[in-house]
Specification:
9 helices; 26% helix; 12-stranded mixed β-sheet; alpha/beta; TIM Barrel
Length: 325
């Protein structure tokens, strides 16, 4: 469907849990957070009901996120259920990769179309400092290789470049030299603990890449590219992408909404506004009421964020693991 600004909203990101097996410094405080009680988390069946309603409204692309989605048991079941909904063309997964190798085969058999793997550094000590978990980088890299070697699976690596890992821009980009994958640099969003960090801009990242690889060249956009801008470099098999919501604001192109693990439909990452879908998912609830609530919320999706200006009333106060960013 189209919102009040004429944007075609066809993409739904679904957080299946707020739990995570890492404690990344821009996502969660060192002491951890209070997890949502299990009773508040949507069941797989409830999630599918939301997907069915979303599909009737024109949503065709689904991405499963967290927290870390692979800590939720039998996630492949949800992939299979969602992929079976009429009108859904693709189901993707955003993961930190720690548990990916052991679950990838079942996920692919269930119909998973793509994996976005979050990876900020290839340096083990830096990885431990950023994630507050030591010794897990080899598992993540094993998961990446397994995904990259899976026929028909679209693979993207997501890096949030900050002052902590600014020296990793070039090493991470090299992952796309010999592999048919996209390495994407995502500007840090000033939400939750991200407000206390300093991220690198697209311009700063591009300067490093140009110094290392030469002038960027235009290239075809990968499947499910969304608002990202993509280039390649001489000798590269894959691509390098930029998602630069701050320095190159693309709200006028935004095609997505988000569902939190406890059932709140968020129409913009910055705002708390949206609608609680939980009451419409109770036993015996009529599908038309759920669809109507979603339709109204999507129609009034905000025109854009104001991250580069002063905070305002109604801004999101939760950490990223709680909202499925």
């Amino acid at each position: 469907m189209r919102d009040q600004y004429g944007r075609d909203i066809c993409y739904l990101r679904i957080s299946v849990t707020d739990r995570c097996n890492l404690r990344c410094v821009y996502c969660m405080p060192e002491e951890g957070v209070a997890w949502m009680p299990h009773g508040q988390i949507l069941t797989y069946e409830q999630i599918v009901r939301v997907v069915e309603a979303a599909s009737r409204l024109g949503v065709s692309h689904i991405r499963l996120t967290g927290g870390e989605p692979l800590v939720r048991p039998q996630l492949y079941r949800l992939v299979e259920m969602v992929k079976g909904v009429a009108g859904i063309e693709s189901v993707g997964l955003t993961t930190n990769g720690v548990l990916l190798t052991e679950q990838l085969s079942q996920l692919r058999q269930a119909g998973l179309d793509g994996v976005n793997l979050s990876l900020d550094t290839l340096d083990p000590q830096q990885f431990a400092a950023i994630t507050r978990r030591a010794g897990l980088l080899p598992q993540v890299l094993q998961g990446l290789e397994a995904a990259a070697g899976t026929p028909g699976l679209t693979v993207k690596v997501n890096c949030v470049p900050t002052q902590l890992n600014g020296d990793q821009v070039v090493p991470l980009a090299r992952l796309a030299q010999q592999r048919e994958i996209s390495v994407r640099f995502i500007e840090l969003m000033p939400i939750g603990l991200g407000q206390d960090r300093h991220g690198l801009t697209q311009k700063q990242v591009m300067e490093q890449l140009t110094d290392a690889f030469g002038a960027p060249m235009p290239c075809a956009r990968p499947k499910g590219a969304g608002p990202g801008a993509y280039v390649t470099f001489p000798g590269f098999t894959g691509r390098v992408g930029f998602i630069s919501a701050l320095s190159h604001q693309f709200c006028h192109l935004c095609n997505r909404v988000r569902l939190t693990a406890d059932g709140h439909l968020k129409t913009c990452l910055q705002y708390q506004d949206g609608v609680d879908l939980k009451p419409y998912l109770e036993e015996g609830g009529a599908p038309q009421f759920l669809e109507s609530a979603m339709e109204q919320a999507i129609y009034y999706k905000p025109a854009g964020h104001h991250f580069t200006t002063q905070p305002q009333a109604g801004d999101e106060k939760h950490n990223m693991n709680q909202i499925g960013g």
